[in-house]
Amino acid sequence: MANSRNTFRALGLGLVLVLAACSGNTPPPGADAAAMGGSGGIGTSTLDGMGVGGPVTPGSQQDLEVNVGDRVFFGLDSTTLDNQSQETLRRQAAWLNDYPNLVVTIEGHADERGTREYNLALGDRRANAVKSYLVALGVDASRVLTISYGAERPENPGSDETAWAENRRAVTRINVVN
Length: 178
What we know:
alpha+beta; CATH 3.30.1330.60; four-stranded mixed β-sheet; 6 strands
């Protein structure tokens, strides 16, 4: 009887940990929630201030990913920031203002459809849409760089709606300072 109680307790604790790790993880429109990684929303992969690998260092890339959200998603052929993306960027702006010495690069990405040139231009417009929004929220423009990878660095290598939705994104990365 004691063994089965301990087994149920262990299973219950495991379930709580899994649910805590998954909380706040909102996939892009059309994406399968199970396919999403640990980036993008408040509380993603965190439990009592702990990241997947241990404590999260304030002002680090992991802090941004876990506690703020490091990416926003876009519709097909779009640079429009929806309400969810705007909320993520408001959190990013507040976080960046808490760490005024950090410089970030916004990576613009596209899905595999379209020509290389079109996707690079679309990724550039997406990165600049994010930069413009952050600057409008008070982040100094000199602290926000942009780059487009077009379809060259897919988050999901698949060729379906779920993969395409995950790949239409802009990701905020902290620049490494020497």
